[in-house]
Amino acid sequence: MPAGNAGADADAATVRATIGAGTANNTGLAVLDFGAAPGRTEANLVVTGQANILDTSVVNTFASLASTADHSSDEHRVEALRFKIGSIVAGVGFTIFAECLKGITWGRWNVYWTWI
Question: What are residue 70's phi and psi, to 5 degrees?
């Protein structure tokens, strides 16, 4: 992530995901926060509580269409957000990195994740 957004780490929420942890259904819903308006181009958060994740696990993410207090389901459908996964730590979790491809965005966005 560019150094210009170093403050994003300070704002990142830590998510303790318990839905499906340690089962075949390793899935969850996380909330990425791009901060107050006018927002920023990038955000990230750490998903923990994944006792069975391996450093070789494959993690997928995709936008949820569920609304948040900041954005409607339609906004979730059309906003150009890209998600990447990094920092997979065996027995712990991973980091979701998000980028707004059309400049900046603000507020909270729902993102589903799953890993195998």
Answer: -100, -30
